[in-house]
Amino acid sequence: MTNSFISKFFNLVQFLKESFLFVPELIFAWWHLTKRIFLALYSYWNTKLLFDKIFFIFLFLQLLFSVLPWFSYQIRFFDTEESISLGPKLNSVFILLSLLNFFFLGFWKSSWTRIWFFTCQMIAIVFVIWGYLDPKRYFYDFVKPEEVGLGLSFYLFLGSVLGAFVFGFFTFKKEDEVLGRL
Known about the structure:
By secondary structure, the protein is mainly α. It has six helices and three strands. The protein has two domains: 1-47; 49-181, no CATH class. It has a three-stranded antiparallel β-sheet. The longest helix is centred in the N-terminal third of the chain and has 45 residues, at 2-46. The N and C termini lie far apart (81 Å). Keywords: Membrane, Transmembrane, Transmembrane helix. The chain crosses the membrane at residues 20-42, 54-72, 92-108, 115-133, 153-172.
């Protein structure tokens, strides 16, 4: 009985020793992989046209601001007042549209991605406008609309959607000009 306990203890010590010796190799491998990914992204970035770079930045900002909370309201608990931030009920729709646009148009060009992009942007704009006009239905339903304030991230999301729409149009137009010359 004690022999098996001692042998298991020594096996555990041996495992921990080998695990700790493996950590520097693992860190080196992750560093090498991360460096290669960033260098590949940097070289990909350098091949882009100016409008395409701005378009990519707007798509990233749209994704970033779709995740952040858009609204805030004050709630009072006895003597303390607390500020609560919340996102829209349709937040998953905005995040999904932004995420798919970012990956499809940032890294992959195809004939159908243009239709996809403009359709998704129009859907996002329509939902934002409907939500602005009827917030209890599309944005939040458990607080009074007059108690809720729009946050900066709401306006930044709307600006990034419109910016991506405009620079997407210019990018596609420039790509057509370049392809027309070939």
